[in-house]
Amino acid sequence: MIQLADSIKNSKKFQTVKTIVNKLKSNGHVAFIVGGAVRDLYLGKSPEEFDIATSATPDEIQSVFEHTKSVGQSFGVMLVIVDSLSFEVATFRKDMKYEDGRHPVNVIYTKDQKEDVNRRDFTINGLMLDPDTAEIFDYCGGIQDIQSKKIRAIGIPEERFSEDYLRMLRAIRFSNKLNFQIEDETQKALYKHASNISSISVERIRDEITKIIQDKNPGKGIIQLSESGLLKCIIPEIESLKGVSQPVEFHPEGDVFRHTCLVLDMLDDDKKSNTELIYGALFHDVGKPDTFTETDRIRFNRHEYVGATITQKICKRLRFSNKQISHITSLVKEHMKFGNVEQMKKSTFKRFISIDNFEDHLALHKADCLGSHGNLSLYDYTLQRMGELQNEPIAPKPIITGDDLISLGLTPGPKFKAILSEIFDEQLEGNFHSKEEGIELAKTILSKQ
User: Fold this and answer.
1) pLDDT single digits (tens) 25-50
2) Other beta carbons less than 10 A from residue 447's beta carbon
3) What distance in Å separates the CA atoms of residue 202 and residue 212, rounded to the nearest whole number?
4) Closest C-alpha among 205, 193, 289 to residue 243
5) Are 143 and 42 contacting, i.e. CB atoms less than 8 angstroms apart?
6) Are 181 and 149 in contact (CB under 8 A)?
7) How far is the CA of 235 from the CAs of 33, 198, 226, 240, 424, in angstroms?
8) What pairing do the DSSP bridges indicate for beta strands 85-91 and 51-54?
9) Adjacent-strand bridge partners of 195
10) Strand partners, 292
11) Cβ of 101: how many Cβ atoms within 10 Å?
12) Is the pLDDT confidence value at 178 over 90?
């Protein structure tokens, strides 16, 4: 029996899941809260979600509850909806032979909760809880492994991983999230089967990687992925950062791989849930191996542009949306521009800080500095200068347009864009404020052409 905090016991979510369990029981079925929710409750944490396992079949679940939805009926999983809250309710089952590293050939329902536990992934996720009594049922040694801070596969590790190779990534995610060690036999099986991760869909892999690097120790997660052999199978471009030396005067922390892990860790905690930013941090120096030169010192000329091209290819491979690809690629492409902020004209600075999602560029720059030399002077300068401009429009609508140039007799052509850009720069600098002043400036520029 565990002691549940009042804040959890009295929460709408817990009370609702308790109602569902009790309704199943009152209809003659066995039911428990299962999985990660029980683990979190044992650790004194508030679960993000609650799952239920029951002896009731999908048809029986539908007969008990008014609002249900099938989300995996062939695997015995139903969604029960109560007061706008949704909970997965799964029938106890034992999985038979797996052929594709993900799906069982067939599923057999069972009335024995022990058999249901035996087909789950890790002991820490194999616990069952009676919400009425707060009694935990442990058929796999999960409590002992929680106390020992171990990630251990239930039963034979190779069999558990071969049933769903995504579990290899989940092992690393739980290890990283909970700061638990992966048990030796489980780790051996993980390392042995790492290359089989390629049999899993890209989307499922991407989502697990995202969960790993959005947690509180993203750098550690990347290191674990590398040590396991999974990283080179999923994002070999990051594995290639290992051993790429950097100039010690700017990067006393070590090679590019070490720096990348530190940058991930140095992102502010409230930024780590930002998917595009966390991947921007992961990929920001991915162009360095291809641009490495050593002259007066080690240099990576234009690595941000090379890196942006590589990043775009990786993101397409990982099947991010076009919007996400554009966002992540921009973070990589623009990250070196902070080195020039002190020399930027007002117009150039305004253009720079008006790029889409600039707050993410600023957050990446801060982490980039903290993950290397630690000097935040350019970050502080940027914030100071932005403060000085807070009463000025940063990205105003251009006063002078192409139609104005045409009215002055200029024919659209190659010069058009350059002249408009020059006039807009003068507007950003504050050198004119009206259409009339802009027209006069345009006439002056045209007279010099």
Assistant:
1) 999 999 999 999 999 999 999 999 99
2) 7
3) 15
4) 289
5) yes
6) yes
7) 36, 11, 10, 9, 42
8) parallel
9) none
10) 300
11) 18
12) yes
Cα distance between the two ends of the chain: 85
Domains of the chain, CATH where assigned: 1-148 (3.30.460.10), 154-234 (1.10.110.30), 237-388 (1.10.3210), 402-447 (no CATH)
Work out the number of other CB atoms within 10 angstroms of the CB of residue 154: 22
Distance CA 76, CA 59 (A): 9
Mean pLDDT of 215-235: 96
Based on the number of CB atoms within 10 Å of its own CB, is 150 exposed (0-12), middle (13-18) or buried (19 or more)? buried
User: How far lies 104's CA from each of 88, 160, 194, 195, in Å?
Assistant: 19, 12, 20, 20
0.70 surpassed by pTM: yes
Element containing residue 89 per DSSP (H, E)? strand 85-91
Interatomic CA distance for residues 285 and 169, integer angstroms: 24
Structure tokens at 156: 């034979």
- Give the C-alpha separation, 51 to 4, whole Å: 17
Q: Tell whether the model's pLDDT for residue 393 goes beyond 90.
A: no
Structure tokens at 384: 């100071």
The candidate with the shortest Cα–Cα distance to 315, out of 303, 335, 329, 336, is 329
What's the pLDDT tens digit per position in 101-134? 566 667 789 999 999 999 999 999 999 999 999 9
